[in-house]
Amino acid sequence: MKAVVATDYGLPEQYEVAEVPVPRPGPGQMQVRIAAASVNPADVKLPSGEFDFAGTVTDLGEGVNSYAVGDEVFGTAVPRVLRAMAGTRPSLGTGAMAEYAVVEADTPLIAHRPAALAAPDAAALATAGQAALATARAANVRPGERVLLVGATGGVGTALLPLLAAAQAHVIATASDADGDAETVRTLGAADVIEYQESDYPADVDVAINVVLPGDRLSAVAKALRPGGRLLTITFPITTPDMLGRDDVELRFILDMDAELASMHDVAEAGARGELRATIARRYSLDEGPQACADFVRRHTLGKRVVVV
What CATH number has the domain bearing residue 17? Predict the structure, then answer.
């Protein structure tokens, strides 16, 4: 089968499409014929296979009862090298930017794909949509609260914005008119759009959500909060109170690998209802997979880049 491979550590321009053996499922696993896969930041930092996929079950290992050959599925399957951070019921896989992948079946981060959610949209929403839904639920935004969203134009940000708007929050989103993104984030639910500079951050917001800045660079985001405000972040390194320079705000790091806040089944339902929306910047063929990874690094991305197989 064809797959995007990294033969050594290096830049995404060094990735290539190669013929590799079709992976076979073992006990508790299933083989999936990939329809679409999307690119995440870790895919270019850890060149061992893309995480998010949508496809059709083509073979089952012993003991798999929740799925059948022919089922449409989607979700997140991280490389086995990341087993330590993959939760108690890990979603592991052989790499989704390929014609076939083998994934664990018994995990809350893989689910049946509803017919109302197209395969490219499902692939785009697997990690980003699950993170957005988990973050929205953890934030528990109330009507009228002022929310600063830092990183509104990325995969998570574009999925999270409509959820915050549906909760009747007043969302202040970072985006650039120069990139042409400001109008898009307004369409997704932002009440106000500001530039990325820290000097543009508002004051006295109730909630600040960071989905892009490194976790040790959030002191300016914390300054935007009123006393007693809430700061939620999804990025590494894990933010600690001493990094913020203040101890009068609530801090929460969101990494929902055990799907305690949002499962892939929840993503499927929210996507089918139109509550979670995929913003796809560009679609690539599998042969263009290395280019998709390179573009993710080298070019500004609004939403997600998806490889359609």
Answer: 3.90.180.10
Helix, strand or coil, per DSSP, at residue 304: strand
**HSE, side-chain direction, 13 A CA sphere, residue 287:** 0
Residue 263 falls within a domain, yes or no? no
Residues 216-273 have pLDDT tens digits of 999 999 999 999 999 999 999 999 999 999 999 999 999 998 999 999 999 999 999 9
Q: Is residue 185 within 8 Å of residue 152, measured between CB atoms?
A: yes
Q: Does residue 268 form part of some domain?
A: no
**Residue whose pair of structure tokens reads 């003991």 in the numeric block:** 63
pTM for the whole thing? 0.93
Q: How far apart are CA 246 and CA 16, in angstroms?
A: 47
* pLDDT tens sequence across 279-297: 999 999 999 988 988 888 8
Say which residues have a Cβ less than 8 Å from residue 248's Cβ, sequence separation at least 6.
227, 228
For the chain, what percentages of helix, strand and coil (3-state, to nearest 5) are there?
Answer: 30, 30, 40
Record the tokens describing residue 26, joined without a space. Answer: 């073992």
The band of 8, judged by pLDDT with boundaries at 50, 70 and 90, is: low
- Give the domain CATH number at 192: 3.40.50.720
Q: State which residues form the domain around 55.
A: 2-113+279-308
